[in-house]
Amino acid sequence: MTAAPRHDAPSPTRTPGDADGRVARRSRVASVALVLVLLGVSIFAIWTSNATSEAAARAVAASGLSDDYAAAASAVAAEESLERKYRLEPGPDVRARFDKAAADLTQSLGAVRRDGDGRDRARVDRILSQHVAYLGSIMLLFEAVDAENIPAALAIDNDQVDPSFSAIERAVLTAAEHKHRTALRLLSDLRGLEAVARRLTPLVFLSGLLLAGLLASVTRGHRRTLDLERAQAIHDSLHDALTGLPNRTLLAERFDMALRSDTRDRTTTALLLIDLDRFKEINDTFGHHHGDELLTQIGPRLTVALRDGDTVARLGGDEFAVLLPGIASVEDAKTVALTLLAALEAPFHVDGVDLDVEASIGLVLSGEHGQDTSVLLQRADIAMYVAKNQDLGVFVYDASSDGHSPSRLALLGDLRRGLERNELVLHYQPKVSISTGEVVGVEALVRWQHPARGMIFPDEFIPLAENTGLIGPLTRYVLDAALKQTREWVDAGRTLSVSVNLSARNLLDERLPLQVAELLAEHDVPAELLELEVTESAIMTEPVRAQHVLEMLSALGVRIAIDDFGVGYTSLGQLKTLPISELKIDRSFVMTMVNDRSNAVIVHSVVDLGHNLGLTIVAEGVEDQATLDELAGFGCDVAQGYHLARPMTGEAFDTWCAGQSLTPLPSAADAAHGMTSATRA
Ligand code: C2E
Ligand code: CA
Ligand code: CA
Q1: pLDDT digits (tens, 9 = 90+) for 650-668
Q2: 294 vs 285: CA distance, rounded Å
Q3: Which ligand is nearest to the CA of 445?
Q4: What is the separation, in whole angstroms, between the first and last Cα of the chain?
Q5: Are 630 and 593 in contact (CB under 8 A)?
Q6: 388 neighbors 277 (Cβ within 8 angstroms)
Q7: Strand 358-365 versus strand 270-277 pairing type
Q8: Dihedral through CA 109, CA 110, CA 116, CA 118, nearest 10?
Q9: pLDDT digit string (tens) for 371-394?
Q10: Half-sphere exposure (Cβ direction) of 662: Cα atoms closer than 13 Å
């Protein structure tokens, strides 16, 4: 078998919850930041491309206009120089060139008019009309030149041509100059914009990259935390929280593995089940803190006495198990068990207190005592129980020598599972008022619907549960089921008191009152509808503690009845100090009272004495009408027995109730008669 490490890896100390929160926050922040940056980058990209293309369009338009104005300006200059030239060398050639210059000007201005804005158009219209006037004066001037009428030519030039030309020239030059400057400015804007974009683009993309990197690292961190948490959860599910030792699940897993290699390699594995003796006393005396601290010291003590590859597990409470794979024989396993007992002998130091611990060990060996983990665990449980009961220290499982029949031993393991699988059912037996015939309550009686053996009655398994500590869970189970049923009856309009039986062990369990309170609250049942039946002998095993628990229960408002009264040795006087409200006369007296007069006298005096103490008296085991009549004569309050009804399921009880009529059980006259005859007797 593979060596299972005895010391399991200590669990990481930081709490996954904190880290989880931090990681989640960080990844949230990172994703938001990344989205913002991506948004920013996109907006930036769109903005730069838009802005530059708009700026470029504006610059192109401006420089086009500037070119047109420049062309117009040079046409104007050409017109002027050709006009002068014509005066010196008139002729068709110069004239044609002048016309061409005039046409150029008109064309350039036409281009401006087409591409420019409203102000350009207005300016062009103004210049063009001045130009028309100018051309008219030029015509007159050229005619005067052609006629060689110099004084006329000079006069036209001075009076008409010059003024209109100067106006045209000024307008065109100013506009050309202005457009040129605008074009230059827009170009430089464009260049600036491009420079900004050039400088910002890498910066923006770099920060995006950085954030993406950050997000990746946060995600990686998150994944690591999840892995850690998963490992932690697996560890937790296989280990006991208090001691860090492997738990029942891991033990069973390793046991399975060991058994498989036993079959393969013809080896044997031993399982030791260790239960501390009187651990509860330590808990009760020193408190749970000391108890817990003591439990954490057990593992290391046991480990010292073992080999690598052995497993120490805590099964719950004060129960530990040790797995010894590859052990040679029962004798060897027993030696190990004795060593373990010796290891526990030295006192444990807990917060300045020295605590002495003893333990009982049950031992089983694979092959010899079973082949299967659950059978072997169950048998180790039984062996441990024998070791503890007979104060043997170590006991090797032996089906025949422990006084339990094998079937009863098997039953013990079954009962644990039966409880888990809800195989236990409650039957209810009515308690009927003798004077009114009214059903005043029911007693819940547990039965075990065993999957293989059918219905098992409580006498067969309650003692077993009492001996093994299973009675605690069993009582809780019965209380839970009984209160659930009570709630259903109350909801259906039937307010009934339900009685539940307690065992001696329950009365020593100080957690019981709290459990009862919780169950009452859970099922929303008023405390006075619950009655708990306890026997005299249960109270007398540890009267002080029992009284304490009963008082706590009574303080909740729960009623207490003394069950099977008369078979114990307690006097009514002794019971006086207990918080009880009901006495149930044991059925052995009631069943025989008609034929056995001494029992009738006992029943009668219990009724009288009980009434003197203010108690309700219940006769159980009423099997016939004669008994009922006589009980009525004694003034007994309540009857319970087969004559009235047998215990039945909740459903059967509902049907039974429907068929009942409310009449006093015996007639009033009979009752009076019964009383006189009994008094006479
Ligand atoms: P008990 O508390 O004395 O319960 C009355 C027993 O007498 C029941 O047996 C009931 O079926 C039986 N009985 C009722 N009427 C008659 C009758 O007219 N004649 C005869 N001969 N018997 C009658 P059951 O249900 O077998 O219970 C046996 C005992 O088992 C109970 O005795 C009680 O001590 C114990 N028990 C039953 N349920 C529980 C439980 O939930 N918890 C605990 N701790 N003990 C329980
Ligand atoms: Ca009872
Ligand atoms: Ca009884």
Answers
A1: 999 999 998 886 666 654 4
A2: 13
A3: 1
A4: 80
A5: yes
A6: yes
A7: antiparallel
A8: 90
A9: 899 889 888 988 888 888 778 899
A10: 4
